[in-house]
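Worked Example 4.2. Consider the chain below.
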Amino acid sequence: MPEMVKIKKLEFNVEEILSTLTDDFEMSTECLSNLLGVKSDGHKFEIPTGYEWHSFIFLLLMLDNIVNEEPDFKFKAFLEVLIEVHKISANTIAKFAKIKEQDVLDFINDTNTVPIEIKYKLASVIMTLRFIFKAVEQKL
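Applying the procedure from the previous section yields the following structure tokens:
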């Protein structure tokens, strides 16, 4: 019987999500087991318990939701983390992206007003900075 999980009225099937990731998105079981921190025999995954279960479910749901997320929403959220949590100024981000500070502010206020070329430059810098600063978030 598949393991059903309920989180505040959220219900999902772990095996179904894993099957979708391997079958529909062609993620290898090796890739998923490394990412999710679980063992796999190549077909089935060993679902963790305890503290590891929370990390496993969090990552699994993030993977499952990728196709539903809007890119602008995701980049805006990452940008806000950089500015609010890591205290990087919009001006600094703009300089790294070789765009105007106003472009960064416009993206924060309404992503639809920013040309795609600016979004591309900004997204590239946001992802690089996010990768760099991710390591220190656990210390904050």
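Residues 71-137 form a domain with the 434 Repressor (Amino-terminal Domain) fold (CATH 1.10.260). The chain has a mean pLDDT of 88. Compare this with Example 4.1 before moving on.
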